[in-house]
Amino acid sequence: MATRHPDELSAQQQLESFGYKQELKRSVSAVDLLIYGLIFMVPIAPWAIFGTVYNAADGMVPLVYLIGLVAMIFTVLSYSQMAKSIPLAGSVFSYVGRGIHPTVGFFAGWAILLDYLLVPTLLYVFAAESMIGIFPGSARWVWALIFVAINTAVNLLGVSSLKLMNRIFLVMELVFVVVFIIIAVTALNGGTIPGAEFSSAPVWDASKVSGPLLASALSIAVLSFLGFDGISTMAEESTGKRNAAGKAMIIALFIAAFCFVTQTWLASLLAADQGPFSDDAAGNAFFDLVEAASNSTWATAFFVVNVLALGIANAMAAQAATSRLLYSMSRERQLPKFLSSVNARKVPQYAIITVSVISAVLVLFFVGQIDVISALVNFGALFGFLLLHVSVVVHYVVRKKSANYLLHLVVPTVGFLIIGYVLLNAAAEAKIGGIVWLIIGAGVFAYYRRTGRTTDLSGPASDSTDHDPQPVATGEREGPRP
């Protein structure tokens, strides 16, 4: 019987070529992946941190996001290459485990698990803090638990519910992006804010640009784009063609960057080069500018949309991504078996519930400690990215003898250096907390070895030097893993 080239395999056949049976529901189109990535990255993300970034970048906020785009291109290309070759829900865990070695893959997955477990908590804390601004005197933890309950319910209802909510929230966010552009342009043309006028200074002002400023901006910029990687965790639910996840990550990165740069350029112009915001004003600087350019009603509307985007839309996407990572690591026997249980709606129910419980507990401890959570989230993501870049070189150049040195050597090397620089200059809390987390991971790893549970990634791909899905005869399938 004739064989088919790997590029011609269906998404399900690609999965089965790795020795897995299809358990999650394949109903996520390429467009859905893109929408999911944009929701995870949050097109309106600059609103909440505009004042802080404005102060750090001496008013050149759009320059920060342009630097971030250039820096993250190397990481998203590395992700795309590994997603093409290893289209599994485990993301970095699967890429590094199969690209380098299962043991290294465990620590890559364990590191980025720190990011994925804490991101929902961080978002709930952000949203709860904002709700206090709308309803003074109410309890932060109550709002956080309400958001947890909403997101858990939607995720347990299945991928169809998640897709619908993602579409609704993305439309809402993009509508407000357009509304802000109209408000800003109208105010700039009408002289609503004294001294505010169109200028390219926020993008590049040679008199302010310096090495230290650019270095500081790089750290802020890279962390601002975290989230596109979540697309890779939906690989086993994708109905798209080969590497739909990789392509969606690249497109999402550029769309988000366009939204970030456009909004921050206009907001910086509205600030009218007023100098740094005070500590008290920095947190709500964007919304104060909206009010100055229009009225308090619009400012309140923007504030509410920001809360909903963080507390529901973004947190919901983060919870989905985290549950898929737990599902994948459990399936490989790296975490408790119950986490890979799939319900009738074809979603990892216990993994979703576990993320919810962890988030609910952590919220009670971390309310009011946004800086600490942010530092830990950043370490997990950056450490995982470092190993991702290494996996590209090992998988393609060392094992597959790829001659595409641009994509498989130059790109991951530059990406490694950028991420390494940011990680070395991360906050001390991030490094200490991250190292402690890795030590705990080493204990978990040792426990699994001592109890006789192998950390090898069994299945056809892990035993081959070519980790691309193997060609299978038409109509033939590999059996499910024992």
List keywords for this structure.
482 residues; mainly alpha; 17 helices; disordered C terminus
Could you characterize what this model shows?
With 482 residues, the protein is mainly α. It has helices at 11-17, 30-41, 46-56, 61-85, 92-99, 102-134, 140-156, 159-190, 211-224, 244-270, 279-282, 285-293, 296-331, 349-366, 370-399, 405-424, 428-450. The longest helix is centred in the middle third of the chain and has 36 residues, at 296-331. It is globular, with a radius of gyration of 22 Å. Mean pLDDT is 85; it is low at 458-482.
Largest beta sheet, briefly?
Answer: none
Helix content: 55-70%
First-residue to last-residue Cα separation: 26 Å
Number of helical segments?
Answer: 17
The H-and-E topology, N to C, reads as: HHHHHHHHHHHHHHHHH
- Residue share in β-strands: under 5%
Overall spatial form: globular
- Computed CA radius of gyration, to the nearest angstrom: 22 Å
Extended strand count: 0
Uncertain residue ranges: 458-482
Task: Please state the structural category.
Answer: mainly alpha
| Mean pLDDT across all amino acids | 85
Short synopsis of the structure:
This protein has 482 residues and is mostly helical. It contains 17 helices and no strands.
What is the element layout, followed by pairings?
Layout: H1 11-17, H2 30-41, H3 46-56, H4 61-85, H5 92-99, H6 102-134, H7 140-156, H8 159-190, H9 211-224, H10 244-270, H11 279-282, H12 285-293, H13 296-331, H14 349-366, H15 370-399, H16 405-424, H17 428-450
Helix pairs in contact: 2-8, 2-10, 2-13, 3-10, 4-9, 4-10, 4-15, 4-16, 5-6, 5-15, 6-7, 6-13, 6-14, 6-15, 6-17, 7-13, 7-14, 8-10, 8-13, 12-13, 13-14, 15-16, 15-17
